[in-house]
Structure formats: structure tokens, C-alpha cells
């Protein structure tokens, strides 16, 4: 979750000061809460990677998960729950916005670290479904590259007929009673 909070900076827009995905915002908030817990429980530092380019290192002291991390998250969630239970929207929003803030005023200067996150961004992984075919007594599996081309090839092999719409409609119709 700590790593996801840092990588989640990809989904923060410095131009608008807004988060593009709520879940990434929440992961960043958790990262902020754990850093705020202190005692060197979580540290984020800028380093030089093996390739000579800027990189980031996250350090989490596993021996302090129960003694530092758990109480920090517990305190945060308790405050958030009190605000929700009492309907104190303003106080809850103020607290959450505080932890959601991405700036360079305090260490570890997350707005600058976002530049490193963006420079190290990897292409999104694609899940491309394998296909199996029965040939007599044997079953063969065909794999595809995890690319857009592989995804299309997998679909074409699975649905070789030109009347795909009719076939997909019949599958939908067969399962309709379950939904």
C-alpha cells in the first residue's frame, strides 16, 4: 500500500491540483498517514538508479508495523469515522484534504517525486486470454503476446465466424436468466 501510494502520484494532476482516481488518492493518504507516524517507520528518498537516472526508494521498518503503523492507521480511521458518524463534512473534508495535498513545502517533497514517478512509469500491463482447442484426445493451449495485437489475435481465434454478433447474443440470451 505504501508503494501504491507513491506510484499513485501518476494520477495526481499538478495543473488542476486534483486526483484523477479516488483509490489512488486514498493510497496516497495512507502513505501520508504512515509517514506522519514518524519513528522512521516509512521513509521515501530520492536516489540514483542503477541506470544512472533518478529513482525512488521506499523503506518500511517491518518491526514497527504493530507498534507504529497500526496505531497510526487506527487513529486516522477513528477520526474519519467520527466525522462521518456525526455528519461533520467540513472537518472530515479538511482532514482528508490535508492528507491528500501534494506539494513541495515539506519532506519528502512529493510534487518533485511525482516527476520521478512519471519518468519511471511503465506501460500498463495487458491481460490477454489464452485459447484452448480440443484436437481428438488432446487439448492444446495457444498463448498470445500481452499487446493490443495479441489481444485482437486471441479474440479472432476465439470467435472466427463473421456472424459474431449473433453468437454473442446467443451466449447472452442463454445466461440472461441468471442476471
From TrEMBL:
Give the InterPro entries listed for this entry. Peptidase_M49
Q: Name one GO cellular component term.
A: cytoplasm
Which molecular function GO terms apply here?
Answer: dipeptidyl-peptidase activity; metal ion binding
Cite the entry's keywords alphabetically: Hydrolase, Metal-binding
A Pfam family it matches: Peptidase_M49
From the Swiss-Prot or TrEMBL record, give the protein name. Uncharacterized protein
Amino acid at each position: 500500500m505504501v508503494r501504491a501510494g507513491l506510484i499513485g502520484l501518476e494520477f495526481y494532476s499538478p495543473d488542476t491540483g486534483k486526483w484523477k482516481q479516488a483509490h489512488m488518492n486514498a493510497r496516497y493518504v495512507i502513505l501520508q498517514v504512515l509517514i506522519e507516524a514518524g519513528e522512521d517507520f516509512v521513509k521515501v528518498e530520492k536516489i540514483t538508479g542503477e541506470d544512472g537516472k533518478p529513482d525512488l526508494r521506499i523503506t518500511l521498518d517491518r518491526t514497527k508495523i504493530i507498534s507504529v503503523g497500526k496505531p497510526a492507521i487506527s487513529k486516522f480511521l477513528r477520526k474519519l469515522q467520527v466525522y462521518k458518524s456525526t455528519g461533520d463534512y467540513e472537518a472530515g473534508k479538511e482532514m482528508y484534504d490535508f492528507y491528500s495535498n501534494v506539494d513541495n513545502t515539506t519532506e519528502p517533497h512529493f510534487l518533485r517525486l511525482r516527476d520521478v514517478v512519471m519518468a519511471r512509469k511503465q506501460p500498463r500491463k495487458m491481460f490477454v486470454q489464452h485459447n484452448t482447442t480440443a484436437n481428438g484426445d488432446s487439448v492444446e493451449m495457444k498463448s498470445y503476446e500481452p499487446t493490443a495485437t495479441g489481444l485482437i489475435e486471441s479474440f479472432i481465434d476465439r470467435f472466427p465466424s463473421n456472424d459474431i454478433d449473433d453468437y454473442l447474443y446467443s451466449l447472452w440470451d442463454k445466461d440472461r436468466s441468471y442476471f
